[in-house]
Amino acid sequence: MAAKTRAEKMEETRVKLIAAGRKAFAQKGYADASMDELTASAGLTRGALYHNFGDKLGLLAAVVDEIDSAMAQQAKDAGDAAGGGWNGLMAEGRTYIELALDPEIQRIVLRDGPAFLGDPSNWPSQNRCLQATIATLGELADQGAIKSVDIEALARMLNGVALNAALWVATSEDPQTTLHKAISAFECLASGVLVKDGDR
């Protein structure tokens, strides 16, 4: 069996630390997660964490990016299953909001993420999602399916509504009831951009 390269070992360490951080942050929350405990659980040292992520906050950013990117992929899969286009875009939004019912997502991405990493619109994962929304809206605009409005502005507004709806669900005392309200409001607001027969 060939020896692992330095790059392979570094990636293996990074994956272990992200997994350990994800488990610790989900169970205890970012503030109460001990760096010594989470590194020990991965069979690593604090030095490995500092080398790969700078500090505990850097590890949180990597964990949030991993989870939020997976959320975006699930949303995209739902959009593809709905046939893409406007229906796909709405399915993506609904799915992203629904994922706020997951306890791990609630705690790490929707509570600790904004509290410790700041404005989610500046996260790399959110910016990738924004670019995907811009691309879909651009196609819809070319088809004449949506009203004439700045595409980037519209994408930011739609993504912002979905994100804030998810944040609301995550912090609600009754997430299931809040979910239905949030999705209904999201779809109602979003539908305002569609070109209706009378608009043509």
TrEMBL record:
Keywords annotated in UniProt: DNA-binding
Pfam families from the UniProt entry: TetR_C_41 (PF21351), TetR_N (PF00440)
Record's keyword annotation contains DNA-binding: yes
One MF term in the entry's GO annotations: transcription cis-regulatory region binding
Residue ranges constituting the HTH tetR-type domain according to the UniProt record: 11-71
DNA-binding region, residues: 34-53
Entry protein name: TetR family transcriptional regulator
Organism: Thalassospira profundimaris
